[in-house]
């Protein structure tokens, strides 16, 4: 897993941590609301690579877009 941390002011402050795995297409997210729980989701690998290459994206908006209404796998 590769950890993506919110460091720039344009990045969403709703995401505590975001760990992505571009080989399997999975990502794990922890929200500021519940930093003790980690949620695992799947998405397309090219979406993860696009996030890694474009460092100025809002992580919260990216996670919301790619999870939709799906429930996390704990």
- The number of distinct helices, counting runs of at least 4 residues, comes to 2
Coarse structural class: alpha+beta
Q: Please tell me how large the radius of gyration is.
A: 11 Å
Shape summary:
globular
The overall number of domains is 1
- Main sheet, how many strands, which sense, barrel? 4 strands, antiparallel
Spans where pLDDT lies below 50 across 5 or more residues: none
Number of strands: 4
Detailed description of the structure:
The chain has 74 residues and is α+β, with helices and mostly antiparallel strands. It has one domain. It has a 4-stranded antiparallel beta sheet with strand order 1-2-3-4, covered by helices on one side. It starts with a strand and ends in a 7-residue tail after the last helix. The protein has helices spanning 45-53, 59-67; strands at residues 2-4, 15-21, 26-31, 39-42. 24% of the residues lie in helices and 27% in strands.
Name some characteristics of this structure.
74 residues, alpha+beta, 2 helices, globular
Write the layout of secondary structure elements.
Elements: E1 2-4, E2 15-21, E3 26-31, E4 39-42, H1 45-53, H2 59-67
Antiparallel strand pairs: 1-2, 2-3, 3-4
């Amino acid at each position: 897993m590769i950890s993506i941390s919110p460091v720039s002011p344009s990045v969403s402050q709703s995401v505590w941590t975001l760990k992505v795995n571009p080989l399997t297409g999975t990502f794990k997210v922890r929200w500021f609301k519940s930093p003790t729980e980690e949620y695992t989701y799947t998405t397309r690998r090219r979406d993860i690579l696009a996030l890694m290459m474009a460092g100025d994206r809002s992580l919260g908006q990216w996670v919301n877009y790619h999870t939709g209404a799906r429930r996390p796998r704990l």
